[in-house]
Amino acid sequence: GEDVEQSLFLSVREGDSSVINCTYTDSSSTYLYWYKQEPGAGLQLLTYIFSNMDMKQDQRLTVLLNKKDKHLSLRIADTQTGDSAIYFCAESINTDKLIFGTGTRLQVFP
Amino acid sequence: DADVTQTPRNRITKTGKRIMLECSQTKGHDRMYWYRQDPGLGLRLIYYSFDVKDINKGEISDGYSVSRQAQAKFSLSLESAIPNQTALYFCATSDVGDTGELFFGEGSRLTVL
After folding, report:
1. How far is B82 from chain A (nearest CA, A)?
2. For a disulfide at A46, which of A18, A34, B27, B110, Cβ 3.0-4.6 Å?
3. Is B71 helix (H, G, I), strand (E, B) or coil?
């Protein structure tokens, strides 16, 4: 069945890099996504990667995809206090629906 | 104004009551979804709809029903609310043929006593 797993918490110092990891089970996923949820708000798309790509970079964000291990990671360079949020990994099943992970709460301390 | 609007934003109710959560969108998307969020469990799909005549069950549809009244409106009902339905509920939309990105409302927090 479809399952997406993430660690629940990550704490980093301001200015350091953050790496949030995700594993998924459905090898037919078309797209994989990272969403950000700030307190009291809905989820917003941060970035996505097409399944035939290994890496995608967008300013401070780097997404790595290892299809063999079904592993997705999000690296945030120079992490700021404004990056504190819950980050959700998601996979697209035939582009019909998204299956979300449990979410990783990132806390950035000064 | 938000593209995806949910009402109510907060609701406290009692066990056994009927509750409706409403969602409306101005994005012109055909696809609409209802998810619930629980701490440590992430988002789980309740129901989704690809057009006005289409309703599909998600992974946790028991105890819920939906109605797609128009392209822009998708409502979620709890016929007889129970305490373990206490959660944050999100409506989302997506466009056909795109990357599958979901656009979320701000959420409806439901507490069942």
Report:
1. 23
2. A34
3. coil
> What is the full per-residue pLDDT of chain B (113 aa) written as tens digits?
679 999 999 999 999 999 999 999 999 999 999 999 998 888 999 999 999 989 999 999 999 999 998 999 999 999 999 999 999 999 999 987 667 889 999 999 999 99
Residue of A nearest to B93 (CA): A97
Between the alpha carbon of residue B95 and those of residues A95, B35, B99, B108, the distances in Å are 10, 17, 8, 22
In whole angstroms, give the CA distance from residue A105 to residue B30. Answer: 32
Backbone angles phi, psi at B85, to 5 degrees: -95, 5
Are the C-beta atoms of B70 and B26 separated by less than 8 Å?
Answer: no
Question: Which of B27, B51, B59, B102 to mutate: most A Cβ within 10 Å?
Answer: B102
Cα nearest neighbour of A88 on chain B: B42
d(CA A56, CA A48): 8
Among B40, B43, B48, the residue with its CB nearest the CB of A8 is B40
Beta strands in B50-86 (DSSP E): 56-57, 65-70, 73-78
Nearest to B40 among A40, A45, A102 (CB): A102
Q: Does the distance separating the beta carbons of B106 and A31 come in below 8 Å? A: no
- Of B92, B47, B45, B87, nearest in space to B67 by CA: B47
